[in-house]
Specification:
This protein is an alpha+beta fold and 207 residues long. The chain is built from six helices and 13 strands. The radius of gyration is 29 Å and the shape is rod-shaped. The termini are far apart.
Length: 207
């Protein structure tokens, strides 16, 4: 074996067609080489003479669980902007097929944790602040003096009236959020939990 130098029976070896001369590896060293490549991306894929070793060449001698892990690693390395489980104790790769693109959330098949594919953190409600489109919206909201509802995360614009975002907006002509959460338009806190003024003249008079 060119790796460990041991003399082993021929049936326990595998010959790789390297150039100019083929190299012989024992099965144990090949398994160790593949195992190391799974934990160190610089060693992936496993190579001999800088030439990748085809998995099909070694499939018969590798344990089934290692072949499964290797196939997953191939998918991970081929995935643009991959997502990993946010749990530090897990941190496994989340395959694209396990991502709900509508919600932008990936489900880890190892621990069932749910990770936001945009910010790579724990699943959260509402818009992800790391989404470039959301960043643009938040910038427009800041310049336009909009307020974000703490309950549903939607943006609300006050055109006139007091700063009380009321659940009865449709009846009293007050401004309200679609989720009917009551809050202060100035600071965004729940109504009657802040010290903001209840109104300002330029809002009471329709702008």
């Amino acid at each position: 074996c060119v790796a460990c130098g041991d003399v082993v029976p021929e049936q326990d070896t595998l010959t790789l067609a390297c150039k100019p001369d083929p190299h012989v590896y024992c099965h144990m060293c090949l398994c160790e080489l593949f195992t190391a490549s799974l934990f160190d991306t610089e060693l992936f894929p496993p190579r001999c003479c800088k030439i990748p070793i085809p998995l099909d060449t070694c499939r018969a001698i590798l344990p089934k669980h290692m072949i499964k892990d290797f196939d997953l690693k191939v998918e991970e390395m081929a995935t643009p902007n991959p997502t990993y489980c946010f749990q530090p104790s897990c941190a496994n790769f989340i395959r694209p097929r396990d991502v709900d693109t509508g919600k932008g959330v990936g489900v880890c098949v190892f621990c069932a944790s749910r990770t936001c594919v945009t910010c790579k953190g724990k699943e959260h409600n509402g818009l992800c602040p790391e989404d470039p489109h959301v960043k643009l919206l938040l910038d427009v909201a800041k310049r336009s003096l909009w307020q974000q509802c703490k309950s549903c995360k939607n943006m609300v614009e006050l055109t006139h009236g007091c700063f009380h975002m009321s659940r009865y907006g449709s009846l009293t002509r007050r401004s309200r959020c679609r989720c009917r959460h009551q809050f202060c338009y100035l600071c965004g806190l729940q109504w009657k939990t802040c010290r903001c003024p209840s109104a300002e003249e330029n809002y009471v008079i329709r702008r």
